[in-house]
Design brief:
By secondary structure, this protein is α/β, with parallel strands linked by helices. Helices cover about 25% and strands about 30% of the residues. The chain contains three helices and eight strands. A hairpin with a 2-residue loop joins strand 7 (about 155-165) and strand 8 (about 165-175).
Length: about 180
């Protein structure tokens, strides 16, 4: 076999392996940057302020599911198309540490530990000038178990208005529980 043909075959095999590796599903906890992007910085700040406000008020749908101490997880994925939160969306409260977790990582941890992982969810977020709304709630990921049906959790749409540099909670609308 000629040297040129051998190099061509080798290159072909390398390209094929690389394309197969790229096409496989991402590992749990990894981020496919081609599909998801960070939420706009203005929305990140609003999310941070809204979570801090409702957490401090102990007024999130299903707040009682959150642990009394330790880290508070916030699901990284949002319901806004192809977007996710970054560390800029994490509240900075003196008594608790907030951390992001991807849904797939939460599932892997629940499966590995045999315990439920509880986290704050951020659904659809809309900021329109001085008015904003955010869907917030608390959810769980349970260890996979054939034949079980999850009947939990609640979320609701929180309405806010911007007063100066601060977002002020106005009211909850359309809370939904499953």
């Amino acid at each position: 076999m000629s040297l040129t043909l051998r190099h061509s075959l080798t290159l072909g095999v390398v390209l094929f392996v690389a394309s197969v590796a790229h096409a496989q599903a991402p590992e749990p906890g990894s981020v496919d940057l081609h599909q998801r992007r960070a939420v706009d910085p203005t929305i990140q700040r609003f999310v941070r302020d809204a979570i801090a406000d409702r957490f401090a008020a102990r007024d999130l749908p299903d707040f009682g599911l959150l642990p009394e101490s330790g880290d508070i997880w916030i699901r990284q994925e949002t319901d806004n198309p192809n977007s996710e939160l970054t560390n800029d969306a994490l509240p900075q409260l003196n008594n608790r540490q907030f951390r992001l977790i991807q849904q797939s990582v939460a599932q892997a941890r629940a499966d590995a530990s045999g315990t439920s992982i509880v986290f704050i969810t951020v659904g659809r977020v809309v900021v329109n000038g001085a008015d904003a709304s955010i869907n917030l709630g608390v959810d769980t990921v349970d260890p996979r178990s054939p034949g079980t049906i999850k009947l939990c959790c609640c979320s609701g749409d929180a309405k806010y208005q911007q007063v100066g540099d601060e977002w002020k909670f106005v009211r909850w609308e359309s809370q939904v529980c499953s």
